[in-house]
């Protein structure tokens, strides 16, 4: 399993190296990784079907108890098969869709392959932390894949990132709480012996929040429809088949153990049903075919939420079937829309005309997928929907209400499916648009997916085997032995299906009346977006909060930091009752002299207006402190202090050499305010330092350090601690240093390029090219000024 | 060592009848406008810079037993580089350190991680060090610890850090980086 993850990484590197030589054909190289994965999954399938999950553990840092356990059980196999199969086909499709494209081609394909790997890791991970890491990797991949093109796509990418990674944080918190309560971080162990209590309840709510965000459930649906700006293969893979399923997967993963907890069922069922109906309705109002499908996706995911979260065997069976069916039909439809868009340059349903004449094969493929989406026989979608109704015909709390909601949602599904299909079938005018059919390469992948949905529908026992991979997590009792089949006789579920279709057709017939009403109700065309985009509102609220607090005023930031420093330790000391016993002023006279010089330099640095002199005085303080270190017998510390001080001064001089010599005087009020803050912080730090040193007890680890140094055959304890005893800490520290440096440098460069940090309020009016010229102008005048200064 | 003997205001163009110096004091300092150059600083830099590098190397090697180590060594190299920057300007800095700072940062991290990995693969556990000692006729007792490699990684990374900062704070250091510097004046 580790090898499969490594293979994805390898394939990504290969695609990256090869894409500049063979262009979009490198997508086929990338498709090798999911293809091999699929082969391996099929090879493992018999074992897993017999109830023997495969597991391996990659030990990473046994001392810290960190390992990467991977486990292929029924649910993982089911989801991984979807991921690998759709991934392979989408990459094959990308080879045609992206042919002739150069900009960002390598990036798109590499990230797609990496995404396939991350998604595989996500479903295989058996450790909550590994789950979280893979989860966020998929989020990052999605961010990179959405935001590749223009400003709008970047905004959509940012929205998706904020929503899904915000959910990710909630999940991390939830998973940690769960792991702590269970005393084990392995998911299989947590599920085998589920903990309980208020902490677990809270943890589950947090985990559900992240599932809601990832699967674009109400109220966090908006990012998914905004994400439709991404290239179609990305939409088909990430935003239909794989990534958005991660939330559903999470629900399915934890439902068997936790469905009985108080918060679980209400959240899962209310959120799921609301999304099923709400998103279904929004799908109906869309003209952009991709957005129609996106809302349809959210709606179907809502259904899966209900089914997989409900916690009964039949519901789980139905949910697993729907998961398979949805991956097949929705990816198909996305790929079909992509093929049409590739030819037509538009995906507005009102522009298309006579597609069934120009591309009959493509439309046939889409039609089969639509049959599955509408839940009509003999497709996998039908099997799923029948089972879904059956699950709540069986006794279940408030089952009839859930059934009513599901019928309403499914009727809307039928309606928007018809609307989608109609746009491909209708002859709007005599001209055919698009005029040319997409190449046969475009039809292959959707045909396979759509065919799979049909074939599984025609072979219910196979579909049943697959769905039971997950449903087995629930023990089958005598009255819950439901099996997938095309014909169960005249059951209530069948009656509900008939009602659903009839209602759906009625809604579709009335669409031209209903939809304008719905639009005018909110005033604008974007009503559905706005209504659903609570997430965008959240994002903008965060943005406002950040711009308010981050004014860009350095003195203000410094004051805030210093005041927090002032409050926290002082409060801690007041609470802790510290004594200031035994203060020795100095051990040696030299210390007193250096101390006095330090104080003098401090006062002078604060009083002097001339910038360079002030900087030099500040550095003098640093050097004097280094001397104190040296006198005290810490040469290593003194050396580092001197060097850091030197470099700091040099860098500050480099920055300051072009600004005016003297600092401008601030208003007296502000000046005295700053002085007050500075004095208070200084006084507090003095007290803290005195308190800490007077209560000093020798550290217990120091002896260990000396022993370790002797063992390493060295005599410099500081260095041995850094390179040997605490080498891992050192690596951590320098990594932080690297990240910080890269961040600072990027910020400075961004500022140079755009003429200021990106502000959400003014970016729209800020033309980069224009500001570029403005700055080169400034540069000349600066140069003149400096040379004049120096002359 | 041949130097260009003309002080202040020397022009780049070889004047007729005069031979161009075979070697410059600092390789790329002549890109600076003559008014900004200081021959004193250039000479000091020329003399000091190699010694600075030797000191840094010493610090890495001596870290086991004496004051030193990777972090100070990197800072010393950084100080040397900023000397080159101050004396010869951005072009001179670019010729003193032609390597991209990102590569330095990456190399440093990779060396440290690789060092940890080798220890792990050798079965001593990650990040463990081994000491070898040799007795040679002339040099006497020599000792080398693998921790030195780790220290070298730290040093490379710190150099990368300093180069990164200098490159951004000083305008247009690399010849292809001609982006204008932004002044932060009210």
From TrEMBL, chain A:
Bias kind Basic and acidic residues: ranges: 761-770, 779-791
The keyword S-adenosyl-L-methionine appears for this protein: no
GO terms under cellular component: plasma membrane
Domain (NADH:quinone oxidoreductase/Mrp antiporter transmembrane): residue spans on this chain: 125-394
Record-level Gene Ontology MF annotations: antiporter activity
Transmembrane segments: 74-93, 105-123, 129-148, 160-179, 199-224, 267-285, 292-310, 316-340, 361-381, 401-421, 442-463, 493-515, 557-575, 590-608, 615-632, 638-656, 676-694, 731-750
Annotated membrane topology: Multi-pass membrane protein
This protein's UniProt keywords: Antiport, Cell membrane, Ion transport, Membrane, Transmembrane, Transmembrane helix, Transport
Name of this chain's protein: DUF4040 domain-containing protein
Annotated MrpA C-terminal/MbhE domain residues: 671-748
Domain MrpA C-terminal/MbhD: 598-659
Domain NADH-Ubiquinone oxidoreductase (complex I) chain 5 N-terminal: 63-107
Annotated stretches, region: Disordered: 751-791
Native organism: Phytoactinopolyspora halotolerans
Subcellular location: Cell membrane; Membrane
From TrEMBL, chain B:
Domain Na+/H+ antiporter MnhB subunit-related protein: 41-163
The organism's place on the tree of life at top rank: Bacteria
Protein location: Cell membrane
Regions crossing the membrane: 43-63, 69-87, 99-118, 138-163
Keywords: Cell membrane, Membrane, Transmembrane, Transmembrane helix
Family annotation (Pfam families): MnhB (PF04039)
UniProt membrane topology term: Multi-pass membrane protein
The name this protein goes by in its record: Cation transporter
UniProt xrefs under InterPro entries: CPA3_antiporter_subunitB, MnhB
Compositionally biased intervals (Basic and acidic residues): 1-11, 19-33
GO cellular component: plasma membrane
Chief place where the protein resides: membrane
Family: Belongs to the CPA3 antiporters (TC 2.A.63) subunit B family.
Region (Disordered): 1-33
